[in-house]
């Protein structure tokens, strides 16, 4: 059974820093005020869970958001109700929800890793040091590239994470900087455009 906290917000914050979701609107109508409250709280807890998943495992909302009501109850450690408004058939409140860190971590560990939006990991084959110097020069001069990180570097290849805020459009704009991004056998491949 879920515990209802009626304590100061500082206590709630101490119980779950990264696993606490605040400011969740819970509102519902039903035949009675009690039924409306139950429906609103249930919907608010699910909204809080979706907000936590969106924050901690973006891109997994559809899969992880579909947890059963029983599983959701096991994930919630406690919740606090604020700004409660009760009518004959309506209920509204704002919730602060504390999730159980161990259970949340366990469930999120099953979520596939997601590359942040605009970040593209590439392999750049190198025939020598001059290729690497030229790729770096062109990346630095490419308006489509907000930055890059060197993940690995050897004599034969460089593995880079490019920040391309424009996504696919940004990748197309690399051509203007004399770089070509293609699909290679081990993922996106960055090469110097021929003739430039």
What does the model show?
- The protein has 2 domains: 106 residues, Dodecin subunit-like; 74 residues, Alpha-Beta Plaits (2-Layer Sandwich), CATH 3.30.70.
- 35% of the residues lie in helices and 34% in strands.
- Strand 6 and strand 7 form a beta hairpin.
- The longest helix is centred in the first third of the chain and has 24 residues.
Outline of the structure:
The protein is an alpha+beta fold. The chain is 35% helix and 34% strand.
How many separate domains make up the residues? 2
| Shape-level CATH architecture of the largest domain | 2-Layer Sandwich
* Euclidean distance between termini CA atoms: 67 Å
Question: Can you count the helices?
Answer: 7
| Main sheet overview | 4 strands, mixed
Strand order of the largest sheet: 1-3-4-2
**H/E series:** EHEHHHEEHEHEEHEE
**Helix-strand makeup class:** alpha+beta
Give helix % range.
25-40%
């Amino acid at each position: 059974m879920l515990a209802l906290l009626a304590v100061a917000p500082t206590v709630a914050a101490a119980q779950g820093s990264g696993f606490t979701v605040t400011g969740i609107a819970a509102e519902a109508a039903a035949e009675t005020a009690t039924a409306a409250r139950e429906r609103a709280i249930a919907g608010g807890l699910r909204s809080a869970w979706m907000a936590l998943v969106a924050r901690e495992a973006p891109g997994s909302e559809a899969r992880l958001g579909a947890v059963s009501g029983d599983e959701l109850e096991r994930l919630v450690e406690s919740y606090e109700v604020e700004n409660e408004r009760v009518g004959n058939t309506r209920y509204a409140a704002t919730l602060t929800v504390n999730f159980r860190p161990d259970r949340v971590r366990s469930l999120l560990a099953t979520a596939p890793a997601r590359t942040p939006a605009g970040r593209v990991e590439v392999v750049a084959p190198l025939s020598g040091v001059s290729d690497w110097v030229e790729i770096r020069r062109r990346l630095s001069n490419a308006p489509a590239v907000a930055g890059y990180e060197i993940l690995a570097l050897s004599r034969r290849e460089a593995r880079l994470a490019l920040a391309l805020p424009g996504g696919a459009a940004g990748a197309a704009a690399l051509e203007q900087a004399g770089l070509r991004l293609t699909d290679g056998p081990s993922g996106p491949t960055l090469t110097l455009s021929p003739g430039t």
